[in-house]
Design brief:
Elements: E1 5-17, E2 33-45, H1 54-64, H2 75-90, E3 94-100, E4 104-110
Antiparallel strand pairs: 1-2, 2-3, 3-4
Length: about 110
């Protein structure tokens, strides 16, 4: 019998980025623009007694995105950066999703 459970955290933050190499039909994305980015982080835990305290995970993840200026980072890049940070910190796999305005985004899985 497996004792694993998956925990998750979700939050949003206002941020700015651009896609410098946007194709012509999406040229407006090459300029700095604002989104309400949504972030969701998931990971497996081995017991039901807060092996990873999800409020701590939430605080750490929010702090990772405390700077609203994201430069030319895509959702994939932001998700991968947070996932790699958390994987190194907790020595386990993480699934991180970053979305724009609750419409579209990317999901990345990082492993130790």
């Amino acid at each position: 019998m497996s004792n694993k459970a998956e925990i998750f955290i979700r939050f949003t933050f206002a941020g700015f980025h651009c896609w410098e190499s946007a194709p012509e039909h999406r040229s407006y994305l090459a300029s700095r623009h604002r989104h309400l980015f949504g972030v969701e982080v998931k990971c497996l835990v081995n017991n039901d007694d807060r092996e990873i305290e999800f409020h701590d995970l939430l605080d750490e993840s929010k702090a990772f995105f405390s700077e609203p200026e994201r430069g030319n980072q895509s959702c994939e890049m932001m998700a991968r950066a947070l996932g790699e940070y958390l994987t190194k910190r907790y020595q386990r796999a993480f699934t991180v999703m970053v979305s724009e305005d609750d419409e579209c985004g990317a999901q990345v899985v990082t492993e130790p």
